[in-house]
Write a structure and sequence with these properties.
2 domains, 314 residues, Nucleotidyltransferase, domain 5, 12 helices, Hexokinase, domain 1, 12 strands, six-stranded mixed β-sheet, alpha/beta, single chain
Length: 314
């Protein structure tokens, strides 16, 4: 959460991070935030929420919340409230970021055109930034829940492994924080390498995906290294899929909480090899700029800019 003054640009007054699992709804989170410090009257508010927003309402994907613009406007209170999908908010934020917050993975060719954002974090989000000839217009998506499409024998085995556990297998099942540990379990349980006791103990004691990431980046065990390799390759492939579907010649942004932590892995070539591996469209994919979003506050900034626009447009 953040509170901004919009009189002259956007001036940050204060911000806070609150654990959503401790609240029974977004209204309670907002109230806690507003009550925790000085709060002038709220003229407009915008929130990025994880889930599809339809007619100003969202049932969140990973929380038992029903979020509604009208209820929020009454609870705050605020004259104008807008709900956005979280990746929609992030896309608005990416459009405002300075170049220092964007790390190039592939230079490509600079040109006007549609762009896309893909972001693995708690789940997998995707958004399209459609070019209308004068500006980019953000289009939300739930593409992270589309069917996982394996590309080789290992990924076919992964699909079968996950089908037994989940039935339907989406890209989010593998391209997310929980997904990284899922890839580790697949490799471990199908005999890629034995799991040593020290690694099993760390996984039982700590966040499993964080352990896989830390050990894999350090080259500490082949199971973790292979899980990161598989994660980066599938991530690159799906980023390329999204770029093809949107014809995103303007660029591809890799956002979310995971990417900055895996900068070294995403930059080692495996991500881009899968991104460009599109048969006759290899050269097209190779011409698209690809940037890693370094600022984790992009969704917050995007929501703030949309709230300010609400004031200007009425």
């Amino acid at each position: 959460m953040a509170l901004y003054e919009a009189a002259a640009g956007l001036e940050l007054l204060r911000e806070a991070m609150l654990p959503s699992a401790e609240f029974n709804g977004l209204e309670a989170v907002v109230r806690r935030f507003l009550d925790s410090g000085p709060s002038p009257p709220i003229a407009a508010a915008c929130f990025g929420v994880a889930g599809p927003v339809v007619d100003g309402r969202c049932v969140t994907t990973n929380l038992p919340w029903e979020v509604d613009e009208k209820r929020l406007a009454e609870a705050i209170p605020a004259q104008r409230v807008r709900l956005l999908n979280d990746l929609e908010a992030a896309a608005h934020g990416v459009l405002t970021l300075p170049s220092r917050e964007l790390e190039p993975l592939q230079a490509g060719r600079a040109r006007h055109g549609t762009m896309v954002l893909i972001a693995a974090g708690t789940g997998l989000g995707e958004a399209i930034l459609a070019w209308d000839g004068a500006r980019h217009r953000v289009i939300p998506s739930e593409g992270g829940h589309a069917d996982f499409a394996p590309r080789n024998d290992v990924e076919i085995d992964l699909l079968r492994f996950l089908q037994k556990e989940f039935g339907h297998v989406s890209y989010e099942r593998v391209l997310s924080g929980p997904g990284l540990y899922t890839l580790y379990r697949f490799l471990r349980d199908t005999g890629y390498a034995p799991e040593p006791s020290w690694l099993a103990e760390r996984i039982a004691r700590e966040d499993p995906s964080a352990v896989v990431s830390d050990v894999g980046l350090a080259g500490g065990h082949p199971l973790c290294t292979a899980a990161l390799d598989l994660f980066a390759s599938i991530y690159g492939a799906e980023a390329g899929n999204l770029a093809l579907k949107a014809l995103a010649v303007g660029g591809v942004f890799i956002g979310g909480g995971i990417a900055p932590k895996l900068r070294a892995k995403l930059a080692d070539g495996s991500f881009l090899a899968a991104f460009c591996d599109k048969g006759r469209y290899r050269d097209l994919l190779g011409s698209i700029p690809v940037h890693l979003v370094l600022d984790p506050r992009a969704p917050l900034l995007g929501a703030a800019h949309v709230a300010r626009d609400l004031l200007e447009t009425g």
